[in-house]
C-alpha cells in the first residue's frame, strides 16, 4: 500500500462531513485534487534548471507524450525535455469512481463547442462540454480507462489510404508492446503480452446489474468476447487501463519508471505558446513557453514533437504559422506553410440519458459506494465499488450491416453503466444537462434504482473543424463538431436504441424488473414516446460526447491534399517537426481512442529512432 494514510483520512472526513450535502463532496474532492502535497510520489520532479538546448522537445505530457519521452530518453546520449501546461497528478485522481469529478478541477482545459441547434440542444448554452486533461498524464488522467484497440479493418483502411506501415499487421506488435495484460482467460492469446508498461485488467468489482446485462446480451445472441483479440463483436466486461484497482495513467505507466533518468527533464505548469521555425529554411529550432507569466525559449537540435492532443496540437500549429492560408491571414499570423490543419475533426457520440428502472437494489449509487465499508475495502485491498471507472461496466460491439457476423466491423457500441444520471449528482454536470431537463425528467426518479445505456456511433460519417478565434494563445479555439451532418449517423444511433430495447427485454434483465424510463425530454414531447422521431429528438438534445476527439492533423500520403503529416508523422513542408497524438488519425477507429493513441506513440517513437539511425 503506497497510498498515504493521511490522504485517506482527509478524503474520508470530507466525504462524511458532507454526505448530507452533495455539493460539498464536490468541493472536498476538488480541494484534495488541487492541493499539491498529494503529488504522486514517484512522478518525475519538475526540472529546476533547464538546458538551453535539448535533442528533442516533446510538447504535452498526455497519453502520447509520456510514451515518447520515455522511449526517446532510453538513449542516454539524447537529452529530452517534456513540457506540460498542467500540474502534477495526485492520489485522488487514482480513484476510478471519481473520474467524473476531475472535470470540475483545473486539471481540465474545459473546452466547449460553438452553440448549435442540431446537437447538444438540451445542454447548457446548446454547447457540448469537451473536457481535456491538463495535468501530467493528460486525458489519460480524466478518462474512464476503457481500453479498446479497435478493429483490424480500421488500420488496414489507414494503410489503404496510402499510410504505408499502418496496416493491422504493422500496428499489432505496437499494441502488444504497450500492454501488461493481466486478464487470465486471455493471457496466452497471441494478441496479448505481459511485458509492456501499461497494465490492462478488469476492474476488481462488478455490480449485479452488470451480471444481468452480460447475461441478457448473451440471451440476445451475442458471444462473450475478448474484443481486443481476434474479433470484436460481442459483449464483455470492460477491459481497463488499471493496475491493481488503481488508475494507470500514461504517466504512471511510462513516466514514473523513467524518473531517475538524468537525460529526461519534465517541466510542469509550462504552456508552449509557439513552435520556433526559421521562416526561410523552414527548419524547426525550438519552442517558446510561458510559465507563471514569464516567457522562455528553449532550443531543440533534432526535433520538436507535438503531443498536445487533438485540440491543442492544431491550435499550436496554426499559432506557429502552419494552417489554412486564408484563415491565418485573417488573424494576422504570418503563413509558413499552407495546410488543412483543424479539419477532419472526428469524435464518437451517443444518445445520452437512456435510462432503465429496475426493482432490485443493485445499481451503483454514490451513497452506496462512498460508505465506510467500501472506503475501507478500497484502502486496504484496492477492491470494491470505488474501483469501478466512473460507473461504466460493460460494453457490446455490433455491426448492423452484418448482424450475424461475429467477425464484423462494429458501427455501434453499447456502453452500459451500472447507475444512471441520478446515481451521482455530478454526472449530469459533466455533460451540462440543463436544469429544466434534469428537474423534469430525472429528478423524479432520484430515489429509484436504475441503469443507463449509451448507444455510441463507432464509425461516424460526419466530421467537423477547429478554428482559431484569435492569435493570442490564451484564447480557446472555436470548435464545430458537425454531429449528425450526415444522415446515416442518426440512422445508426436509432438502430442502436432498438438493439438496447431488445437486450433489455431479455429474461435476465426482466428478472430485475427492467423498464424504460418514460418521462419525455422537454422539447421532444410532441413526438410519440419511443418512436424514431422521438429518439432522433432525444439524441439531438442529449448528445453525449464520449471524448474521442481526433483527426485534426491528419496523416496521409503526399497526394492527399488534406494531410498535415506524412506516414512517418512529419509535418509536410517543415523540417524537424512531428505530430504524435490522437490528432494524426486519418479516420477514427472503432475504438475508444486511448489505446490507439498509445499505439501511435510507441510506433512514432520507433520511427524517430529509425530516422536518427538508432536501433528501434
Ligand atoms: C473525460 C474523458 C474520458 C475519456 N474516456 C476514455 C476511455 O474510457 N477510454 C479511452 O480509450 N479513451 C477515453 N478518452 C479519450 C482518451 O483519453 C484520449 O483520446 C487520449 O488521452 C488522447 O491522448 P493525446 O496524447 O492525444 O492527448 P492528451 O492525453 O489530451 O494529452 C495532451 C497533453 O498536452 C498538454 N498540452 C496541450 N497544449 C499544451 C501546450 N500548449 N503546452 C504544453 N502542454 C500542452 C495537455 O495539458 C495534455 O496533458 C477520454 C477522454 C476524456 C477527456
Ligand atoms: C505485469 O503485471 C503483473 C501483475 O500486476 C506484475 O506482477 C508484473 O511485474 C508486471 N510486469 C511488468 C513487466 O511490469
Ligand atoms: C530511483 O532512484 C531511487 C533512489 O535511488 C530509487 O529508490 C528508486 O527505486 C529509483 N526508481 C526507479 C524507477 O528506478
Ligand atoms: C441472422 O440470423 C438469424 C437467425 O439465425 C436469421 O433469422 C437472419 O435472417 C439472419 N440475418 C442475416 C442478415 O443473415
Ligand atoms: C429487435 O428485435 C426485433 C424483433 O425480434 C427484430 O425485428 C429487430 O431486428 C431487432 N433489432 C435489433 C437492432 O436488434
UniProtKB/TrEMBL annotation:
One of its GO terms (molecular function) is oxidoreductase activity, acting on CH-OH group of donors. The keyword Flavoprotein applies. Coiled coil: none annotated. The active site is at residues 548, 592. The keyword RNA-binding does not apply. Residues 1-22 form the signal peptide. Residues 133-156, 309-323 form the Glucose-methanol-choline oxidoreductase N-terminal domain. InterPro entries: FAD/NAD-bd_sf (IPR036188), GMC_OxRdtase (IPR012132), GMC_OxRdtase_N (IPR000172), GMC_OxRtase_C (IPR007867). PROSITE patterns: GMC_OXRED_1, GMC_OXRED_2. Keywords: FAD, Flavoprotein, Signal. Its cofactor is FAD. FAD binds at residues 135, 272. Belongs to the GMC oxidoreductase family. This is Glucose-methanol-choline oxidoreductase N-terminal domain-containing protein. It comes from Henosepilachna vigintioctopunctata.
